[in-house]
Write a sequence for this structure.
């Protein structure tokens, strides 16, 4: 949820920043405030299946659910949690994150498991 704050900083005090990055699974490439050349360049750097998914959701929003649940065409790689969207450096780091998450799951379990009704008394 910090995207708005970063965008405001970039717009109003860019001279005070060394750089910024917005990490988002999906971006609205038709947003008027983004530079056209930048959005066009980044749009075509995506996987083709994600380009199609965004086109469907933008031009035919009533088909979005069907597009992401049908099996004839590849759906959004973000919705499928595909590793194809990761950079090579991210793929190298994923085992470390997976081991941390599995350790966390063992400690805390799934929500509601092992909780007694009188735990707060």
């Amino acid at each position: 949820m910090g995207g708005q704050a970063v965008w405001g900083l970039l717009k109003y005090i860019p001279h005070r920043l060394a750089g910024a990055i917005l990490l988002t699974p999906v971006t609205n490439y038709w947003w008027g405030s983004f530079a056209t050349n930048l959005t066009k360049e980044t749009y075509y750097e995506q996987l083709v299946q994600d380009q199609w998914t965004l086109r469907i959701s933008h031009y035919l929003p009533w088909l979005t659910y069907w597009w992401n649940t049908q099996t004839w065409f590849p759906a959004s790689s973000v919705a499928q949690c595909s590793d194809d969207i990761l950079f090579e450096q991210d793929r190298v780091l994923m085992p470390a994150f997976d081991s941390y998450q599995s350790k966390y799951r063992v400690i805390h379990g799934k929500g509601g498991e092992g909780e007694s009704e009188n735990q707060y008394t």
Observations:
- Residues 88-108 form the longest helix (21 residues).
- Helices lie at 3-12, 36-43, 48-59, 64-69, 88-108.
